[in-house]
Amino acid sequence: MNYDAVFDKWHEECGVFGIYDRHLDVARYTYWGLFALQHRGQESAGIAVTNGDDIELAKNMGLLTEAIKELPKLKGHIATGHVRYSTTGSNSPRNIQPLVIHYQDGHMGVAHNGNLTNALAIRRQLEDDGSVFQTTMDSEVIVNLIARSKAATIEDRIVEAVNKIEGAYSIVINTTNALIGIRDPHGYRPLCLGKTEHGYVLASETCALDVIKAEFIRHIEPGEMVIINDEGVRSRIYAPVEKIEKKLCVFEYIYFARSDSNIDGQSVYETRLNMGRELARETKYDADIVMSIPDSGTTAALGYARESGIPFAEGLIKNRYSGRTFIKPNQEERELAVRMKLNAVPEVVAGKRIVLIDDSIVRGTTSGLIVKMLKEAGAKEVYMCISSPAIEYSCHYGIDTSVRKELIAATHTVEQIREYIKADKLHYLTQEGLCRAITNLESHEMCFACFDGDYAVAVPEEQEEGVKYVLE
Amino acid sequence: MNYDAVFDKWHEECGVFGIYDRHLDVARYTYWGLFALQHRGQESAGIAVTNGDDIELAKNMGLLTEAIKELPKLKGHIATGHVRYSTTGSNSPRNIQPLVIHYQDGHMGVAHNGNLTNALAIRRQLEDDGSVFQTTMDSEVIVNLIARSKAATIEDRIVEAVNKIEGAYSIVINTTNALIGIRDPHGYRPLCLGKTEHGYVLASETCALDVIKAEFIRHIEPGEMVIINDEGVRSRIYAPVEKIEKKLCVFEYIYFARSDSNIDGQSVYETRLNMGRELARETKYDADIVMSIPDSGTTAALGYARESGIPFAEGLIKNRYSGRTFIKPNQEERELAVRMKLNAVPEVVAGKRIVLIDDSIVRGTTSGLIVKMLKEAGAKEVYMCISSPAIEYSCHYGIDTSVRKELIAATHTVEQIREYIKADKLHYLTQEGLCRAITNLESHEMCFACFDGDYAVAVPEEQEEGVKYVLE
Amino acid sequence: MNYDAVFDKWHEECGVFGIYDRHLDVARYTYWGLFALQHRGQESAGIAVTNGDDIELAKNMGLLTEAIKELPKLKGHIATGHVRYSTTGSNSPRNIQPLVIHYQDGHMGVAHNGNLTNALAIRRQLEDDGSVFQTTMDSEVIVNLIARSKAATIEDRIVEAVNKIEGAYSIVINTTNALIGIRDPHGYRPLCLGKTEHGYVLASETCALDVIKAEFIRHIEPGEMVIINDEGVRSRIYAPVEKIEKKLCVFEYIYFARSDSNIDGQSVYETRLNMGRELARETKYDADIVMSIPDSGTTAALGYARESGIPFAEGLIKNRYSGRTFIKPNQEERELAVRMKLNAVPEVVAGKRIVLIDDSIVRGTTSGLIVKMLKEAGAKEVYMCISSPAIEYSCHYGIDTSVRKELIAATHTVEQIREYIKADKLHYLTQEGLCRAITNLESHEMCFACFDGDYAVAVPEEQEEGVKYVLE
Amino acid sequence: MNYDAVFDKWHEECGVFGIYDRHLDVARYTYWGLFALQHRGQESAGIAVTNGDDIELAKNMGLLTEAIKELPKLKGHIATGHVRYSTTGSNSPRNIQPLVIHYQDGHMGVAHNGNLTNALAIRRQLEDDGSVFQTTMDSEVIVNLIARSKAATIEDRIVEAVNKIEGAYSIVINTTNALIGIRDPHGYRPLCLGKTEHGYVLASETCALDVIKAEFIRHIEPGEMVIINDEGVRSRIYAPVEKIEKKLCVFEYIYFARSDSNIDGQSVYETRLNMGRELARETKYDADIVMSIPDSGTTAALGYARESGIPFAEGLIKNRYSGRTFIKPNQEERELAVRMKLNAVPEVVAGKRIVLIDDSIVRGTTSGLIVKMLKEAGAKEVYMCISSPAIEYSCHYGIDTSVRKELIAATHTVEQIREYIKADKLHYLTQEGLCRAITNLESHEMCFACFDGDYAVAVPEEQEEGVKYVLE
């Protein structure tokens, strides 16, 4: 996760995709799949394709459509792809995934989504054994573990390697003769399996299956590895049973995933609708309209509207052409930066008591500016409703820990936050309400650590102190 | 207007912006203003700034944020800006606006939105008199008319020039000492006036005033010219009274303008909401949900939902990261191209009778693919409602006339179109319903020519035959 | 002409090329021709191709190979091309030649080499008559004159136009059905005619004929216009006889032209060899070796060596990979800048009395640094010999007049210059010696104005005062 | 070495540079040093700078001035730099040097010039031990060896590593606290040491010292390692005495090095002059002029002229603005490709018996086209003299072995080559003559393997069969 100051949001770091098909142009299909996963990372994109003998890599900084201007020339039948949202300090061209390496058994392309908590310790140990590192990616730690393994088969070597790492990881690998998908024992990050006419697909979200009309088969289980080759798909629970304990990151439902995706059997769209309904039940605000901060709060706002009977309206219009690089407003023009992305519709908001739905508040600054914008457009009252509990703890499975001190909820009460953003009311969805919204998973199957600080995986001390543990 | 094959939409060609302010960095403000007008044109962008002595131009192909990487170095107090959506054949770098020229009275930057119907005739006449042309822009015709005028003042010369041209035009000009705004006698294209603390702003839409927090003053009248200089704003009705007859392009409300803008006293958002309401009244469909094809049909869909009581839902999710250039799907992958932009949410649509709102149908191919997508996601029935009458005629004030033969409504009945797109029902908003939705303008104040073929400005014969009259 | 501070040289502004051939890919041939003329201009390049109906233009900043990455798509049979060395203030993308315009008789591509002395006056007059200008190029003045002419044929219109302009110009024009070449009545800039198997070629220098194996026919005469079309080549003396007076720029022989070219019947290589011989006769220095500052002084150095019997040696080695844009040394690192381009060979120069040949001295700074470099490498004495007379006057036919105050010879005696550059001896070739070196032209057929201030074309007063007369 | 088809030449692969200085902007100095070494490689350039804590790398494809647009931001006191001429198949962006890695002792930047003959064997062995490779560079093999070493100090680890590799290598390394230079036991590739005011410099050639005015100290010896840190320079003979046997690549004198450099105590310029003298003594041709194919044959041609008394002339003019990427002539336009680079001066060559000097013939095609060009320009007879013996064997220390079958001298007698290139006479400098020209080295101190097939380092069988052993 990373933080977008203008929209006051955390962002997921990555999306992964893999395909094994001898009848398709796998590079093209990976491209379409990554296109559908672009919301999971916009900093860089890469595609690796192998035909068993050679492996070719196309990668660059930027959106997929900027990064990949021509598809890898090498025709093959196994491809992996990756889109990345960089964490601070890791946005170097050399850190673009997939990572392609040559080792004793041939070559390998590795793309992963997540964050290892013991990467630094393993890296140091590998260095002590004579490994060299050219990047700061966790993937490089993983491939070194694989290459160092003395196990007999590549499959066993991978198993040996991933059993040494801890943290959040959904990994796709193309070896010389197989496509492999791995999900960590907690299943923090999603990974699903689909079927093409003559082959198989792995993807972070089901929306990437839909775009290429692959048939959804199932979600990969926590601690599971799937091996796809000419003989079909084979599954293997690689992790010791006692270590498997599902802890899907609940932010996939709140914000990260695309709402047309289904994560672990649960429709993201329905979940967000339910969150809105729960918010309505918890607040019972008397208001004239329900609105969202587009686009992420819209589905929850519809849920609130349906449950409460208060009409939904679009009182904030988003500029669809924001572009990625532009001449930045000065620091003092923070308000301008918000107006460049959003504008209030006076005809909608003037004189109204507004229920305003957003999915989260990180620092609060942007929320405050939006409340101000609505008031200036004539809003009578603004009741801010957040479709998640307050974020009080930082995430160790994919976020720069230095952000914690900026989390407004870590240091302010709800009432203090309400005052800071100058809303007339403020309500965060309760953790219970959130759990009710997610109908197909038990509450113990999800990670709520950013709300309650209950980390399933022990965090190294240095991280607790807020020390960045990536090398760069 | 131009046509987007994937979304089956016409596009507006341009947005203009102008500012006169001795206390602001006018280039930066023009940049922010154009940012808000980006929806009116994404092919190129340009900014011209003058300090009275020199004029500097920054322009390039692409989105504003790609085209303008650094703001013009020349500091000045008068700027004009332009974003363009190219018509076929005019997408040459040399046609990027504003056009900057030197002539006997100094220099001039000209940006215009619209299309002249007698441009070719005037161009030929000017050539007969020895003018040379380096571009195919109408702006070049206008500046040559100005330069040729024998009138005493620059203001009178401009008046003489614009009284010779016919068609649709909203023009902003920075001369050496003034910012000038002109709207054609029919007022086809919008233009509004705003106020900064120490100066004035002109813009195609009010959303460009909002982004820089300029105070909205009023809309420029058809046939009006405003002259802004150190003495303030002066207005002049330049056109003969008998020629002034307001004919605002109704597509500004239906599709072109941003919904947070106000065009000629009418809120775009409210108009779209009303269109949906009118559609509900005209159809009275019995259905389970109301949906839109995002983003343009959403407000009308909300209106339909409110009027009918049928719940609004987001059954189609749009990919927010489409990028501008990408590896194109093959021709046969037309369906893939649609899936790259839209995806159905099965949980929302399965088993449902759906009212699907869109703002227009041009060729029908995309509509058919979207209906198919919904049916494949389980929709029981799809009732397509279009928030505008059927487009049966081409537009002569800003569109490539060659498109006419592709207009499905020009050659098919509504029933035939319904069959073609395989919808279960199909309804177009009636022209009367559309007029009712626009509460602040009389029906004779708008142009409906693309629906009824009633062109206020006579069209040269060669155009009627579908001959492109731009040179290039 | 323009000035290169590191090499202390003036540069020619342009090279032109034209071809008429219905059997060749004229765009490709123009590309090769311009490639051979690259030494005449490295700032921008352009190629215009017409098939009679349409005209296509490819142009950009940079060396030909950077500027033209793909050849114009339009296939045609008439092409013009241009390479430019920008004068200060004119290096804008919009000033890249050829200039392509549309006018009453069709279209036209115009490329020209030289500088008009009455451009500003004509421009003002044209503006008074209602012309507008988008560039600051002289070409735009010329095409406006052509378009304004009331003469019956395009040929007569061109004649009427060029009879109004004064100064230096060699022009190539592709009209809709002809390739036209024009040389000014003084013939300041060269222009030659060649033959392909089925057509004809025009070029600034014969080396551009050689590269495409075109057969050299003859040089265009001062005041002559050649018209090439399907009927072959036709010649016309367009200028009044009393105005024709050959005044070829003598710097073409000294420095501008490539030594494998033949200018007006005189081999450039032989001329430079002769200059060296004349220098040897005039100086009779007793020395150990003769050297040049590569590459421009080398041929003259060989001439000096042959005449004097003193051996020629390469005591300064030039870096062949200087590149065009690089991280500039600081101002104080001027010496470094010279060392980046040249290095002395101690084994050659140590202990030697050196005759060092260069073609000119503009400011003297670089000459001084080179003398210093040789002394530091052990040279005993350095006798600087310049293969041209001292440049005391600025050039009005293609140079930024502001340079005059920097001309060291305009303000210093030869002895003072020698002291400034710290050479042990310094000799400039006499004007008589220079004339002897050019065996095929009479001295009155050449312009020596930069040596003696005798300008054949009257210079407008404002220019004499050093006022730049280009608009930009 | 690599092959340039147009100029029929082999090229050196690399140039290296290193600097240790706490008082200079080492990145800038590395930039200037590489600028002077650009002739050794034009495909890519890179600079790594360390301050002991961090290491920063700037690298890209292209000439130095294109590749490095801004110098590394990290200020430090130790830098290494590299320019590369790619061998076929290795021109991937990921293979640009220096290679920067992190390992147990910190970080390291490594740049090397040469080619290992046992790289593949070591690579396989390292892979068996669990190393992974991301590039196909020999440098990556070396750093893995260093990281794997169990020696106590970084210095000892490097020694252990380089004692395992075989072939040609001159290496510069910046560790966290030292700059290290290493030359292989045969000293195939040059490396020299210079002094700045407060530090030291290492470079492939002395011309890189000259550009930054570093004082030349001495050449690094075969089998020597120098360690530069705050305590100064320390030297260590790392290779076993019995393995040290100087075998400098004689092509450094013939063609690779810049003529203003001094390699192992021998002036390159003087050597080339001597080669020409030897050629004159060996041939004693009766001719009218001596010419070279510029630029590489010029110095030898001067030597021939001096020895023989036949005047030197420039009969072939080289286009100085060839650019690196351009629209390629078709295959059938091979002759055009040569004319784009060279043109004959008829006034020099017509009617003459010409001694034409070049440094080598690889395939002979270009030589034949140049002889043809001279004959067409009127040359009476062309006596081709090559300033090196015939290249009959491929080089294993830095060349794509697949070239061997294209070496004309490997399959043709001298007389057959003469016929093929249509010269009237043809003479190759004898190996004895070449040795006489190199006055300061014994013949056994140089490698003549490409002439006589006598390889000092055993070549793996797979290479003998012409199998490329780089992975990619």
From TrEMBL, chains A, B, C, D:
Its EC number is 2.4.2.14. [4Fe-4S] cluster binds at residues 249, 395, 447, 450. The active site is at 14 (nucleophile). Binds 1 [4Fe-4S] cluster per subunit. Binds 1 Mg(2+) ion per subunit. InterPro entries: GATase_2_dom (IPR017932), Ntn_hydrolases_N (IPR029055), PRTase-like (IPR029057), PRTase_dom (IPR000836), PurF (IPR005854), PurF_N (IPR035584). GO terms for molecular function: amidophosphoribosyltransferase activity. It catalyses: 5-phospho-beta-D-ribosylamine + L-glutamate + diphosphate = 5-phospho-alpha-D-ribose 1-diphosphate + L-glutamine + H2O. Transmembrane segments: none annotated. The keyword ATP-binding does not apply. Pathway: Purine metabolism; IMP biosynthesis via de novo pathway; N(1)-(5-phospho-D-ribosyl)glycinamide from 5-phospho-alpha-D-ribose 1-diphosphate: step 1/2. Its cofactor is [4Fe-4S] cluster; Mg(2+). The keyword Transport does not apply. Mg(2+) binds at residues 296, 358-359. Residues 14-231 form the Glutamine amidotransferase type-2 domain. Keywords: 4Fe-4S, Glutamine amidotransferase, Glycosyltransferase, Iron, Iron-sulfur, Magnesium, Metal-binding, Purine biosynthesis, Transferase. PANTHER family: AMIDOPHOSPHORIBOSYLTRANSFERASE. Catalyzes the formation of phosphoribosylamine from phosphoribosylpyrophosphate (PRPP) and glutamine. In the C-terminal section; belongs to the purine/pyrimidine phosphoribosyltransferase family. This is Amidophosphoribosyltransferase.
